[in-house]
Amino acid sequence: MTVAEVGRPRASRAPLKLRKRSPIIDVLQVAVLAAVLIWFTLKGAGAINYNWQWYRVPVMFYRVVDGEFILGPLIEGLFMTLKISGAALILALFIGLATALLRRSNSYSGRALAYGYLELIRNTPLIVQIYLFYFVLAPIVGTTPFWTGVIALAVFEGSFTAEIFRAGIESVKKGQWEASDSLGLPRHETFRRVVLPQALPLMLPPLTGQMVSLIKHSAILSAVAVFDLTTVGLDLIADTFMAFEVWLSVAGVYLALTITLSVSVSLFENRIRKRAQHW
Amino acid sequence: MPDSSEKPLMIELRGVNKWFGDFQALRSIDLEVRLGERVVVCGPSGSGKSTMIRCMNRLERHEEGTIIIDGIELTDDMKNVTAVRREVGMVFQQFNLFPHLTVLDNLMLAPLRSRKLPKNEAREIAMHYLERVRIPEQAEKYPGQLSGGQQQRVAIARSLCMKPRIMLFDEPTSALDPEMIKEVLDTMVELAEDGMTMVVVTHEMGFAKTVADSMVFMDEGEIVEAATPADFFSAPKSERTKTFLSQILIH
Q1: Nearest to residue A219, comparing CAs of A166, A184, A255?
Q2: Most B-contacting residue of A183, A273, A279 (CB-CB within 10 A), to test interface
């Protein structure tokens, strides 16, 4: 083999050497930690004479009446949260990408618009924005509470995704743009086929974080008339006075949702990384 | 330029000025390159050689003067710019291959997306030029798996896939390990023998002597001297040229 055929060896990361230890220790640690947490909760509840009624919680998820499966309010709230988050996510990605592109554009007013939007949204509280959208904008434009909530969330999260997109795009070397230009590639093709594919692996981790916080932020929509998971929780407590059980259940559902999301994205990330190992 | 004045003008620069902020990078540049002519541009670093050839496909915008490439004037009109870029290939010091695409996809991208050729035709062209730079067996690899010399040859092939009438080379061997310079220069010599119009920024004086029809020496943003290689190397007129040549030819 000639030198040219061998090429330059690529630096490979040495695997971290972990000291082998029994998984029993890990399990024990988790068990002790959980026991302590549960003990504190029970002790606290005991101190205020709280009457636990966990047996009343399952019906909040589902019921079976005459062999018919009926979804409980918590699951319906979860579906609503999923719908809001999904719609807001798509819109937020679109707003973020558009803003990132505007910030890079040659047009002065385009850059000013993007800059103004980013500063305005990131420097005011989300709850105030939601009230503005709900009580000021919605009556004027005439959107439903659901879409008002989705738009308000998307506008908020879009300002953060815009910065993620911008950082991702700027991480791609100038030479890539120049090579594309020199080949006469149209801008949108350069963007789609050269820049975005290289920026994506870098943008995925922060975008996942953004998606998780979008799901969490959707809870704030309970402040306006949207029947999401948190609103359902509030209603259930008003009906049953089971604050501990309901809030813990609601938190559990959010947790299950965001962890599922994180895990699936990191699986996707691994696939992309595998493809990107030669870069 | 000698004995080719009847051939059509491919590149024409008239009174070109360019500034980076307060720094004047190009000072009233006049240059003519005719069909099939090979021009080698040399000069100390920061002399404006790269800036000049980057103006020829408008990777840099010139502020004053006229640049006409193959009959098309470079202005702010993007239509003209795109038309010129389709006729002009460029090879960079850092290769600038697309790392996320295989060699074959690197070559096919512009024919597919700029020329809008059908896929099988783009693939045929790509394989043809990969064979010309003698690395068809690397088609399915990624650029990062190739040596520097191979990468630069892929970059040359990528430019050729657009069937350009002019090729610009911006220090194509400066980032290469010494043992890989020859394979790239050989590819460029073959290209020259096929009659390609070429402007090459390089310090490879051996290459210049064999290939160049004319030598251009730049310093501080201006063309100090333009001559045939024979005159340029044996009887440089300007003091600055003499100093530069003594510095690079001493070893």
Answers
A1: A255
A2: A183
Cα–Cα distance for residue pair A88/A226, rounded to 1 Å? 14
Structural domains counted in chain A: 1
Per the structure, the complete domain to which residue A117 belongs is given by 72-278
| Token couple for A146 | 């659901």
Distance (Å) from the alpha carbon of B33 to chain A's nearest alpha carbon: 19
Q: How many Cβ atoms are within 10 Å of B235's Cβ, its own excluded? A: 10
Name the minimum distance, in Å, from the CA of B247 to any CA of chain A.
30
Report the relative pairing of strands B9-20 and A62-65 from DSSP bridges.
unpaired
User: In Å, how far are A174, A184, A273 from A178, measured between CA atoms?
Assistant: 6, 10, 25
Which residues are within 8 A (CB) of B149 and not within 5 positions of it... i.e. 6 or more apart? Answer: A4, B176, B177, B179, B180, B181, B183, B184
Q: Which chain A positions have a beta carbon within 8 Å of B159's beta carbon?
A: 182-183
Q: In A, which residues are within 8 Å of B179 by CB distance?
A: 3-4
The two beta strands, B23-34 and B197-201, are unpaired
Residue A11, in any domain of the structure: no
Whether B89 contacts chain A with CB within 8 A: yes
ipTM of the complex: 0.93
pLDDT in tens, chain A (279 residues): 444 434 444 444 555 555 667 788 888 999 999 999 888 888 887 888 888 888 888 888 888 888 888 888 889 989 999 999 999 999 999 999 999 999 988 899 999 999 999 999 999 999 999 999 999 988 898 888 889 999 999 999 999 999 999 999 999 999 999 999 999 999 999 999 999 999 988 898 899 989 999 999 998 888 887 788 898 899 999 988 888 888 989 999 999 988 988 888 888 888 887 777 666
Q: Are B213 and B1 in contact (CB under 8 A)?
A: yes
- Taking the C-alpha atoms of residue B112 and residue B101, their distance in angstroms, rounded to an integer, is 14
Q: Is residue A25 part of a domain?
A: no
Measured CA to CA, the distance from residue A253 to residue A232 in angstroms comes to: 12
Burial of A43 (0-12, 13-18, 19+ CB in 10 A): exposed
Is residue A154, in this structure, part of any structural domain at all? yes
CATH of residue A248: 1.10.3720.10
Beta carbons of B110 and A5 less than 8 Å apart = no
pTM of the model: 0.80
